[in-house]
Write a structure and sequence with these properties.
The chain is 12% helix and 20% strand. It contains four helices and twelve strands, in the order E-E-H-E-H-E-E-E-H-E-E-E-H-E-E-E. The longest helix has 17 residues. The two termini are 23 Å apart.
């Protein structure tokens, strides 16, 4: 994709790699190539160029004098405006020339470290272990059915969190923090509605199954807070065992959410006794907003 002003374009057009034609900034192409993900506003392929504050392309923050750092108008980040790059006394949005507005606080975000309301959907009678179905994913599907959930989710709609790159497990995408927030919000939404949810995990590098990073599937069925660690965690059915005492152990089967990395992990899972890292989350409530295909 070429931006405005490059060969063949102008300040009011962009080149669309879907159809190899130029379009006006307000026009959409209705012929995307298979597998191509693009923002409908800025048309960025696999990356969005829209402003993170006003969510528009081109950005209109300069006109509104809204700071892209503190999201306030006028800016309170420094003694000079981060929009016009002038001291406040000279900035048209702050100085005596007028044009400024009363500062307003942005909507506060929920502290990811604050305790969440506990949820426990774990039921030993609904456990399905490896001895019953020698396939971890199908065992997870069977558990959901016992909870009254017939649709387990789809590999076409997942919150993708981690991938393998050159023998290393790394966070997926250009906005890992946003990906994790969306995935955790999805998990919380399901638990609050009484719906366990299937997640994929990685425990061994280079197994090359599923999409390449997911080695195993389990079912998240609860939520709690570890005051010693100061972190929220999510309990899960472990289908890699035939023993319900292990598979339904809410003390041991815990994914901790660390938003500073970010990551959702269990230091020592049952399979191979290796660390589990959640690689994908599969919503089963029909809300697939912000999801991507597994592959």
């Amino acid at each position: 994709m070429t931006r405005a002003g490059e060969s063949g374009g102008n300040n009011n057009s962009y080149f669309c790699s879907w159809c190899n034609k130029y379009h006006g900034l307000d026009e959409d192409c209705d012929k995307p190539a298979p597998g191509v993900t693009a923002c409908p506003k800025c048309h960025g392929l696999n990356i969005c160029y829209c402003c993170p504050v006003c969510h528009n392309y081109p950005c209109d923050c300069f006109a509104s004098q809204t700071c892209i750092i503190c999201s306030r108008n006028p800016c309170i980040c420094a003694d000079w405006c981060l929009i016009c790059m002038k001291p406040f006394s000279e900035c048209p949005g702050h100085g005596t020339g007028g044009g400024g507005t009363t500062p307003t606080d942005p909507e506060p975000e929920t502290d990811p470290y604050s305790p969440k309301t506990p949820v426990s959907l774990m039921d030993v009678d609904k456990f399905v272990g490896y001895g019953q179905i020698k396939n971890c994913y199908l065992a997870c599907v069977a558990i959901l059915k016992k909870h009254g959930i017939d649709y387990p989710g789809s590999p076409d709609y997942v919150f993708k969190l981690k991938i393998e790159v050159n023998g290393q497990l790394v966070n997926y995408g250009n906005d890992p923090a946003g990906n994790y927030r969306n995935a955790v919000d999805c998990i919380d939404r399901h638990l609050d509605a009484g719906r366990p949810i299937i997640v994929g995990v990685n425990h061994t590098i280079d197994r090359n199954i599923n999409e390449g990073a997911t080695d195993h599937f389990v079912v998240i069925a609860g939520r709690g807070y570890d005051s010693a660690k100061g972190m929220n965690y999510y309990t899960y059915y472990e289908v890699g065992t035939s023993h319900s005492s292990i598979g339904c152990n809410e003390m041991d089967n815990r994914f901790y959410y660390d938003p500073s990395v970010p990551t959702l992990y269990d230091e020592k899972g049952v399979v191979r006794k290796e660390r589990y890292d959640i690689t994908q989350v599969r919503p089963n409530d029909g809300n697939n907003e912000n999801t991507v295909p597994q592959k």
